[in-house]
Write a structure and sequence with these properties.
Elements: E1 2-5, H1 22-27, E2 35-43, H2 60-71, E3 75-79, H3 80-85, H4 95-103, E4 112-115, H5 126-129, E5 138-141, H6 147-154, E6 158-161, H7 169-178, E7 183-186, H8 190-198, E8 204-210, E9 233-241, E10 244-251
Parallel strand pairs: 2-7, 2-8, 3-4, 3-7, 4-5, 5-6
Antiparallel strand pairs: 1-9, 8-10, 9-10
Length: about 260
């Protein structure tokens, strides 16, 4: 993997190299200030899935970026439907991954936070039952959610109300930060990304572009109601490997850590 556009203040270990340190590349201007970072992969023609799943678009480089971004996060934020479709499980960090986290001052374990208004979730799923006790799965919902489903999930997860009848994403992000989880990694889906961006909550987008055409039919990385205006982004890093591109964008108003 080689650097095409380095960070704004490159150091010796961030120059073009086949041995690029992804944790350094993606940790700069992130570990110090945190925020909400989204990680998505798409095809050249803009599809966010192939055969209905994002894994159909993944490359070896995308998988390494995916792992590095998780190593640099305090929590993974994901929509309940995406977690179900993609088969999410609890994230138990061990060995080198746990060491990379603790070396950077992060908790060795990485919890998942699910966004769900309906609470149509299986409390017996490994996403809940296999979570490390120090990093229980979090369910972000609203006070108007079904009380029986809430009670069942509360046995295996930390259930947090973020709004009354509708889920307030600003309140959800604030609730995560209140728990010390200030480096929030959103992994989808498209409607959650669109809502975060429309609410002005997105600080950074890491987008992998796979060198293939998915063809008609698939969603884009954002979906839902039209926005009143566009969201400006600033390119702060671009990598390439085997024809795939790995871009890092910051929201235009987000300052660098320095």
């Amino acid at each position: 993997m080689r650097t095409l556009i380095p960070p704004s203040e490159p150091t010796s270990d961030q120059q073009p190299s086949d041995e690029l340190d992804l944790h350094t590349h993606y940790g700069r201007d992130w570990l110090d200030i945190g925020g909400v970072r989204a990680n998505f992969v798409c095809s050249v023609d803009g599809a966010v899935t192939a055969s209905g799943l994002s894994r159909g678009l993944q490359t070896p480089g995308d998988n390494r970026v995916f792992a590095a971004l998780r190593d640099l996060a305090d929590v993974v934020l994901v929509g309940a439907r995406t977690a179900t479709a993609e088969g999410y499980r609890a994230l138990r960090r061990t060995g080198k991954s746990a060491a990379r986290r603790t070396d950077r001052g992060l908790h060795p374990q990485l919890p998942i936070a699910l966004v769900s208004r309906s609470l149509v979730l299986d409390p017996a799923a490994e996403l809940f039952t296999a979570a490390d006790p120090s990093a229980r799965t979090i369910v972000l919902t609203c006070a108007g959610a079904d009380p029986s489903r809430r009670a069942a999930l509360a046995q295996v997860a930390d259930v947090i109300d973020c709004g009354e009848q509708e889920l307030d994403l600003a309140a959800a992000c604030a609730a995560l930060r209140a728990r010390g989880l200030r480096r929030i990694l959103c992994e989808g889906g498209p409607s959650l990304l669109a809502s975060l961006a429309a609410a002005g909550l997105l600080d950074e987008l890491c987008l992998s572009v796979s060198p293939l055409l998915a063809g008609p039919g698939a969603e884009r990385i954002v979906t839902g109601a039209p926005w009143p205006d566009t969201l400006a982004l600033r390119l702060v890093g671009l990598l390439e490997e085997d024809g795939a591109f790995f871009s890092r964008y910051a929201a235009a108003g987000r300052p660098p850590a320095g």
